[in-house]
Amino acid sequence: MSNNQLRSEHRRFQSFLRNPLLKLQIIGSLLVTASIAQGAYWGCLHAQEETVSSSAPAPQEVWFSSEKPKQGETVEVELRMPAAVPPPPVEFNKESYKFFPFQAEGGTIYKALFTVPVVMKPGAKSVKIGSTTRNITVLDAHYPVQRMTLPPSKNNFNTAPGEEEAIDGAKGTVSAERFWKGNFQAPSAARVSAGFGLRRIVNGKLLDDYFHSGLDFAGGIGSPVAACAPGKVLLAVSKGFKLHGNTVAIDHGQGVVSFYIHLSKVLVKEGQMVKQGEKIGAIGQTGRANGPHLHFSIYVNKVASTPWQWFRKAH
Ligand SMILES: [Zn+2]
To answer: Residue 203 burial by CB count (10 A; 0-12/13-18/19+): exposed, middle or buried?
Structure first.
């Protein structure tokens, strides 16, 4: 659909009715938002002829940042609700994702983020918001397979006591405030030596259920590592992690958390606020690493998201 087509779609006057039987009948949507006026970035899905109960209010208008996300990509869902009615969560792939309010021209809008898992099979998938169901199409990202060798001492995913819990706790952090605005930046100027989504053959054996959850930056030991976006330091671990090595995790808010692992130096403290581009540590080879590099990943509500998308465009 071209920009012009999208715009004219939205200009068509649409109305919203409420009947006395406590049922909402949506025959269309009313509002034109700035996001749409900016172009085709937002795909629009109109609510059409739906009858829902008042206990599960249907959104007047729902937008998806993409209706055809690739595996590993994050989708932002935006909606408007009648005033003072909290929106139901987004349900996708058997998980629920919370909406957060934003003040916009003409009232409050709500935004939620979900990520298509790298391992999800391509094809049509449903996304539910209350009693409204929409379909999106998951596209195959064609992530490659990489062969690597590791010494036997490092060819395992063993963790230290408490390590997994600390990492999982950081991944599951969903704080109400959104600390970022605009694009994220790469945490290192070094060359990317392993991309997001790679499957791996280690010492000749394909690792089932494994994919590379982030980007590897092949910088030398001691080269600077910067925060990809503003946020609050969730983890600042400078000893004891067997698998991840020295680790920093930053909460960017609303379910978005970045991780910096295998560091030689950690320069921040837990609870500290950091700015985008602020030096938080240095590249190292701690934990399960076969050479000096930074492993950098972005998780959105516990699901690994392709960092390239965050560097290119903000949600
Ligand atoms: Zn890595």
So the answer is: exposed
